[in-house]
Amino acid sequence: MITLYGFGTGFGLPEISPFVTKTEVQLKMAGLPYRKERAMPPASPKGQLPFIDDGGEAVADSTFIRAHIERRYGFDFDAGLSLTDRAQAWAFERMIEHHIYWGLVGARWVDPVNFAKGPAHFFDGAPEHNREKLREDAQFRVAENYLLSGLGRHGPDDDVELAVRSLFALSVQLGDKSYLMGNKPCGVDATAFGMLAGILSPFFESALRERAEGFPNLTAYVDRMMDNYYPEFAWTPLRQAA
């Protein structure tokens, strides 16, 4: 059986990390049995989560895990899509992971209130004498990466505005369809769901979340994906929460 290593439940989500969520949903899409274990990034071969152990073979990074599933188990996440659709799905995935993701990082890690409420607790189990130092160092490293991403070079209103333009693109692509590329979920839906659920979780207050709630088709999409892939999770549909 495949073992998936992730952070686990938290922040009002069935999985804290959007990238672990992506991999978990893709395992469900492929119908592969798996068990899930908690881990921290240093345990991974690439120093990041998720990673999987599949019969003694460790595979790290959600995109490479997908490729591993497709190669070993012969599952095509984009079955039925044309070559053009596959190219578009890949482009949207890159936009989600390399642009929208940094908006989520800013809301969770750079905002001091949200950091104290959420990621700061990652270090609660550290020795008391250096707990605060570990928190400060981690927040500094993430904020530095946020700056290097480009989005963090802008003011708090401008960076949200740029992220919302990408959300708008997703909303237009989704339209009145059930899923991003049609009426059947495909690989990019796992990516989009993980990121959008992270942004829309009621656990954190942020300008990005408020703006994302202005796209009713995206909030309904998150509700639909949650019902499909985490039916056991106590997720309040966002239209009700609003």
From TrEMBL:
<feature type="domain" description="Thioredoxin-like fold">
    <location>
        <begin position="18"/>
        <end position="114"/>
    </location>
</feature>
<protein>
    <submittedName>
        <fullName>Glutathione S-transferase</fullName>
    </submittedName>
</protein>
<dbReference type="InterPro" id="IPR033468">
    <property type="entry name" value="Metaxin_GST"/>
</dbReference>
<dbReference type="InterPro" id="IPR036249">
    <property type="entry name" value="Thioredoxin-like_sf"/>
</dbReference>
<dbReference type="Pfam" id="PF17172">
    <property type="entry name" value="GST_N_4"/>
</dbReference>
<dbReference type="InterPro" id="IPR040079">
    <property type="entry name" value="Glutathione_S-Trfase"/>
</dbReference>
<dbReference type="Pfam" id="PF17171">
    <property type="entry name" value="GST_C_6"/>
</dbReference>
<dbReference type="InterPro" id="IPR012336">
    <property type="entry name" value="Thioredoxin-like_fold"/>
</dbReference>
<dbReference type="InterPro" id="IPR036282">
    <property type="entry name" value="Glutathione-S-Trfase_C_sf"/>
</dbReference>
<dbReference type="InterPro" id="IPR026928">
    <property type="entry name" value="FAX/IsoI-like"/>
</dbReference>
<dbReference type="GO" id="GO:0016740">
    <property type="term" value="F:transferase activity"/>
</dbReference>
<keyword id="KW-0808">Transferase</keyword>
<dbReference type="InterPro" id="IPR050931">
    <property type="entry name" value="Mito_Protein_Transport_Metaxin"/>
</dbReference>
<feature type="domain" description="Metaxin glutathione S-transferase">
    <location>
        <begin position="165"/>
        <end position="225"/>
    </location>
</feature>
